[in-house]
Amino acid sequence: MTMPQFIGRDREVRRCYGFDEIALVPGSVTVDPEDVDTSLQIGDVKLAIPFLASAMDGVVDSEFAVAMGKAGGLGVVNLDGINTRYEKPREVVSQIAGATPDQATQLLQDLYKEPPKEHLIARRIEEIKKAGVPCAVSTIPQNADRYGPIAAAAGCDLFVVQSTVTTVRHRSTRYKPFDIISFCKKMKIPVVVGNCVGYDVAVELMEAGIAGLLVGVGPGAACTTRGVLGLGVPQVTATIDCASARDFYFKKTGRYVPIITDGGMSTGGDICKAIACGSDGVMVGSAFARAKEAPGQGYHWGMATPHSNLPRGTRIRVGVTGTLDEILFGPSRLDDGSQNLVGALKTCMGAVGAMSVREMQLTEIIVAPSIRTEGKLFQRAQQIGMGKT
Q1: Taking a C-beta distance cutoff of 8 angstroms, is the pair 64, 287 a contact?
Q2: Is the pTM of this model over 0.85?
Q3: Distances (CA, A) of 264 to 35, 96, 211, 215
Q4: Which of 101, 212, 237, 257 could form a disulfide with 42 if both were Cys (CB 3.0 to 4.6 A apart)?
Q5: d(Cα 41, Cα 99) in Å, to the nearest integer?
Q6: d(CA 215, CA 358)
Q7: Which of 164, 225, 239, 321 is labelled catalytic?
C-alpha cells in the first residue's frame, strides 16, 4: 500500500496510475514468442487470444463478430443498440458516420428512439452462431432479465451485463434494482458483469456468481464519463485492485473469475501493461473501430452517447487503417503500435519470460513517468511513432 497523502486538511487521497506512468521490466529468462499461450477462458468459452471487441455499434455487428470469432477473439454485440432496433443496421450506422460533428449527438439520440425488437435479438445471435464461432451479447441491467432468456434460447454463449458503474448493492426508491445474484443463478450461460474499479465491489460481484468482470470506468476513447461525472480510476490501479480481488476470491473458493480490462488501451504496449497488471484479457473499442470490417466506417461512439438526457460519450473519428487481420496479427503498416496487437503481446511475453497470461501477470512493474518521452525528441518534434499527438 502507498503512504497516505493529503490534498487538504483531513482529506486523505491515494495516488493512482495510468498506462503512461509505468513500464514493464524484461525478465532474466526470455522465451520464444511463438511458444507462448495467449488463451483466455470465460466460463465454458475458450478464446485463442485474450481480445474482446467492445459492444459499441460502430465497432461490432454480427458480421464483425463473426470475423473476430474466426480470428480467435470475441466480438460483443450491443443488444440495446442499432443492431436490434433496425432490420438493416449498417445502413443506419452509415447515416451516423456521415453526420457532421454538430449533428452527430442529436442524430444518435433520434435514431436510438426506435425501440429494440426481440426478434432481432435472436436473429443477430443466429447470424453469428451460423458461422460456427462463439457469440457474446451485452445489455444494460434494466433489460437483462428480459433479454437474457431470449439470448440463451437463441444459442448465445456469453451474456454481458454492462453499465457505467456496477455494484451488487444498488438502491432505488423508483424501481426494483437488478438482482445480479438471482440473474446469474437462473442463466444457463456464463454472465460477465461490468464495469467496476474497486477491490471490495469486485469481491462482492464474484461472490454473486459472475463468470467474468469488466474493469474500467470512463477510460474509453469515445467515453466522456470522467468529464461529465468526474468519475474514474486510472486503469493500472483499477486493474491491479480488481486482480487482487480475483486472487483473494480464488484462494477463498477455488473458483477463478477472469478480469478483463475494458478501455483506455490504444497500443500494443498498453495491452501488454494491462495483462502484466493482472488482467486476464482486454476489451478494446477504438483499435477495432479502425478495421475495414467494422461497421462504423472509421467512426465510433460509446453506449451512453445517445442518452436522451445526459450523453456520456461522443462520436469520434479514428479512421480506417487496415483489416482486422492486420490490426490483430500484422503485418503492421503503421508506426504507432496500433496494429499487430497479438504480435506485440506475444513478443512482450517472450521478453519478460512468460509462457502464459498467468505468468505474464507476475511481471515486474516500475513507475516510469518518462517512459514515453525519454530519448524520443525527434519523434515528438516530427509527430511520428511515439510522438504522435
Answers
A1: no
A2: yes
A3: 28, 23, 23, 11
A4: 212
A5: 39
A6: 17
A7: 225
Predicted confidence band at 304 (pLDDT cuts at 50, 70, 90)?
Answer: low
213-259: pLDDT as tens digits: 999 987 776 666 777 777 788 999 999 999 999 999 999 999 999 99
The domain limits of the chain are: 24-387
In angstroms, the CA 377 to CA 253 distance is: 51
What pLDDT does residue 104 have?
Answer: 85
Give the separation between CA 334 and CA 181, rounded to whole angstroms.
Answer: 45
**Cell 458516420 maps to which residue?**
97
Query: Among 52-61, 302-311, 360-369, whose mean pLDDT is lowest?
Result: 302-311
Q: Are 362 and 355 in contact (CB under 8 A)?
A: no
How would CATH label the architecture of 24-387? Alpha-Beta Barrel (3.20)
Q: Which of 156, 184, 196, 223 is catalytic?
A: 223
Q: Which of 343, 344, 349, 380 is nearest to 362 (CA)?
A: 349
Q: Is 242 a catalytic residue?
A: no
Cα separation of 260 and 216, whole Å? Answer: 9
In tens, the pLDDT along 77-97 reads 999 999 999 999 999 999 999
Active-site residue, 305 included: no
